[in-house]
Each structure stands twice: as C-alpha cells, then as structure tokens.
Amino acid sequence: MKKILVVDDESAIVELVSFMLSGPFKIITAKDGREAVEKFKVFKPEIVIMDVMMPIMNGIEAIKIMKDIDPDTKIVALTAYADKKGEELRSVGVDAVIEKPFKKRELVHAIKNLL
C-alpha cells in the first residue's frame, strides 16, 4: 500500500484530504513542516501533500529538506497562493500545485499522474 504524508496546519484540511484518499493509500499526517520532516524520515512516503504557509517550519523549507533526503519523492503543494508561489514551488522540486479551495478530482488526478 502506497503511503501519503498529508501536511497542513489546518486540521480540517488534513481531515478532508485524508478522507478523500483513504482506502487505496495509507495516510500519515503532520501539522507543520518540522513534524512533516520527522515523519518523512520514519515512514518514507511515496507522495507528500504539503501546505505552503505553516507555523514552525513552512512548506518550502520542509520540501527542500525532504528533497535532499530523497529527490525522487513526489510532492503536491496545496496553497491559496499558487499564483504568487508557483515559480518558487517548482524551483524547490514540487511536482504539482493545487490551489485551495480544491476539488477531490483535482487531487486524485494529480496523484494518479505522479504514480
């Protein structure tokens, strides 16, 4: 079973994404970038779904660390600032960007394309 790490400081988003993807995937969750990096090291997920703006360690910092550990990990950024952050996200190795609010089909489509 493929593992997906879902990272967002908004618990409602974590719950929503986890619900949308439960079944075919093992879901691991984190509430900030620092916790995400720690769980990334332990669980070695195939895909990370990462919010960009978070406390403690933001998504971009966490993505850089994760890509240093495993450059092949696929990362989907969830952000309300896709138009402002898109170029920066691509430069750190994000594979897909989904703008909040999003629909399940957008998320599923991005994951299918990455697998």
Describe this structure as you would to a colleague:
The structure is a single chain. The protein is an alpha/beta fold. The protein has one domain: Response regulator (Rossmann fold, 3-Layer(aba) Sandwich). Helix content is 47%, strand content 23%. The protein is built from 5 helices and 5 strands, in the order βαβαβαβαβα. α4 links the parallel β4 and β5. α2 packs parallel to α3. The mean pLDDT is 91.
Give short descriptive properties of this protein:
115 residues; 47% helix; 5 strands; alpha/beta; 5-stranded parallel sheet; Rossmann fold
Number of H- or I-type helical stretches: 5
Task: Tell me the Rg in angstroms.
Answer: 12 Å
State the order of secondary-structure elements, H for helix, E for strand: EHEHEHEHEH
Major β-sheet profile: 5 strands, parallel
CATH topology: Rossmann fold
CATH homologous superfamily?
Response regulator
Structural class: alpha/beta
Helical residues, percent: 40-55%
Secondary structure blueprint with pairings:
Elements: E1 2-7, H1 11-21, E2 25-30, H2 33-43, E3 47-51, H3 59-69, E4 74-79, H4 82-91, E5 96-99, H5 104-114
Parallel strand pairs: 1-2, 1-3, 3-4, 4-5
Helix pairs in contact: 2-3
Concise description?
47% of the residues lie in helices and 23% in strands. The protein has 115 residues and is an alpha/beta fold. The model has no long low-confidence stretch (mean pLDDT 91).
